[in-house]
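Re-run with default settings, no changes from the original entry. Doing this only to confirm the output is reproducible before filing.
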Amino acid sequence: QVQLVESGGGAVQPGGSLRLSCAASGYITDIYVMGWYRQAPGKERELVATISTDLRTHYADSVKGRFTITRVVMEKTMSLEMNSLKPEDTAVYYCNCGSAALTVPGPTWGQGTQVTVTS
């Protein structure tokens, strides 16, 4: 069974940068697409960015040009570099895997890490 552990996150001022990381354990053949989703207070969880095993990527329009998702397939790790952060990026960010599609979440979630953008 795949498990995901996130690291990174924290508080930053608007315009700042943060890096999130996610490490997967379990069979590499069960991981498929990896991605980041986020949930702000009072809102539904939404897709941020995803990346396939052949390194195709998909981004939410709201983060295009600011966030970059990367992955090392054989190491079962994934990162999200977040630049030019805005207050509306404040949310709990969740690592996800197991989907065969870039736009549909898989069954496995990390515990979540808080990102707060505030002056």
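The longest strand covers residues 91-99. The mean pLDDT is 96.
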